[in-house]
Amino acid sequence: MQALLITIQWISDKLKYIGAACLAGMTFLTCADVLGRYLGHPIFGSVEIVGFMSILSVGLALPYTHQEKGHIGVEIITQMLSKRTQLIIDVITGIVALVIFSLVTWRMLIYAQTMKDSGEVSMNLEFPEYIIIYALSFCFLIFSATLAREVFQNCLKLKKD
Question: What is the rounded distance in angstroms from the CA atom of residue 47 to the CA atom of residue 137?
């Protein structure tokens, strides 16, 4: 079990770096395209590439952001509750989130396969869009695994108390 948790952590760390590279790539590509437009030679397909990288940067950052508690949370009321009650709330919301994102992952895999079967490609570059959808569904799979790990750890904390 510990090996699985370490593997999830390792993958999450690698996804974080790939997401950062996508973010930097978006910046450089946008700057190069703006400069190219000014000089009369814009980069063909730059809008599509930036769109793909923005989708990937968000998906790739999800597991790490959740692990670091970087998402917005409203804790005005829950912080006044006991630690045990806060853990119970965390377990319940974690389970609900796990169910929702597991369903999202499953449906995205089906959607990617549908896009692959239909031969859908992007407008300018004719890049197969299903590849991006598969990559995003993998990100959601790792995010779901991160949620499951957190629920498991919170359940162990509850059992200790």
Answer: 22
